[in-house]
Design goal:
Layout lengths: L5 E6 L5 H10 L12 E3 L5 E6 L4 H7 L4 E5 H7 L4 E5 L5 E8 L14 E4 L2 H10 L5 E4 L15 E6 L3 H5 L2 E10 L1 E5 L5 H21 L1 E9 L3 H6 L8 E4 L5 E9 L3 H10 L3 E7 L6
Parallel strand pairs: 1-3, 1-4, 7-8, 7-9
Antiparallel strand pairs: 2-3, 4-11, 5-11, 6-9, 6-10, 12-14, 12-15, 13-14
Bound molecules: phosphoribosyl ATP (PRT) and zinc ion (ZN).
The site of zinc ion has 3 residues, from loops.
């Protein structure tokens, strides 16, 4: 394949790498990401992939070394690089939170005044304290932030949390959420026309994959006398498909439902007289 290639930066190994690779693969982009590889070219799409440390991705994209990248919003906010956020990707969800030792009697963010806080996110935390008019001593460390209070290095921490179990096992209690984060697709500010076209093509596929992940395909059988009520329970993209079954007096109904309402809708359908309910995953949903 000749001509322009879009350069995308992905995390080499870490919490975002598996899902970043999987997303591209679901978009039909085939490439080899064997261990230790720093660069790869897709075989069937004009894209070149760089595998990097997540902290370096915003800078590479801002400088135009990579055209686009996938990175956590937390890293993007911390590095303050001038790039465009194109799309939220729905994985790598976490929050950056302030946490205190269990015996710390906490009332409000003002309690952090004059305290020493260990974090790997000094910029975000500094902005947060400034916005709350709190002056504290931010102590930057690059890892194992959660042990800082127990070894006497800090009074509190500001760290990423997902399940909360790391805080819990280190005797810490989450008291304030500083920011919510998830993986996002970012892009260089001045992409040339050809790169933009490739990005649009990829983005169209990403949106289809994301929409599919949020929806389910549902099939069910309904007695014709209950059809109107059952159809009213289906919040599909358009009105559902209804086809007669071989057995007289019955119809087959097909629709798409949002994953969030899924259990409730299924329970209501069953109670409304639907039978043989099948729910299927959708690979792509073209809108
Ligand atoms: O080597 P490289 O620099 O590329 O990777 P890294 O070690 O800096 O980052 P990595 O792979 O740990 O995380 C990459 C991104 O994943 C982060 O920037 C976040 O956007 C996102 N993410 C989502 C998380 C978490 N969830 C998460 N739970 N990043 C880190 N954690 C850590 C957290 O720091 C704490 O130590 O997990 C622990 C807390 O988890 P729970 O479940 O116990 O609350
Ligand atoms: Zn990192």
């Amino acid at each position: 394949m000749t001509g322009t290639k879009l350069k995308i930066a992905l995390q080499k190994s870490g919490r975002l790498s598996e899902e970043s690779n999987a997303l591209l693969k679901k978009c039909g982009v085939r490439f080899n990401n064997g261990a230790g590889k720093l660069k790869s070219e897709a075989v069937n799409f004009p894209i070149e992939i760089y595998f990097l440390r997540d902290d370096d991705i915003p800078e590479y994209v801002a400088d135009g070394v990579a055209d686009i990248g996938i990175v956590g919003e937390n890293v993007l906010a911390e590095t303050k690089k001038d790039v465009q956020t194109i799309e939220k990707l729905g994985f790598g969800k976490c929050r950056l939170s302030l946490a205190v030792p269990k015996n710390f009697s906490y009332r409000s963010v003002k309690d952090f005044a004059g305290k020493r806080i260990a974090t790997s996110y000094p910029q975000i935390l500094g902005d947060y304290f400034a916005a709350n008019s709190v002056e504290s001593d931010i102590h930057t460390i690059s890892g194992s932030v959660e042990i800082a209070p127990s070894i006497g290095l800090a009074d509190a921490v500001c760290d990423l949390v997902s399940s909360g179990s790391t805080l819990f096992t280190n005797g810490l209690r989450e008291v304030e959420i500083v920011m919510q984060s998830e993986a996002v697709l970012i892009a260089h500010n001045n992409l040339d026309g050809n790169s933009r076209k490739i990005l649009d093509k990829l983005l169209f596929r990403i949106k289809s994959v994301r929409a599919a992940a949020q929806n389910k395909y549902i099939l069910l059988n309904a007695p014709n006398d209950k059809l109107t009520e059952i159809i009213a329970l289906l919040p599909g993209i358009k009105s559902p498909t209804v086809m007669p079954l071989a057995e007289t007096g019955w119809s087959s109904v097909h629709s798409v439902i949002n994953e969030n309402d899924f259990w409730e809708v299924v329970e209501n359908l069953k109670a409304g007289g639907a039978e043989g309910i099948l729910v299927l995953s959708i690979d792509q949903m073209i809108q």
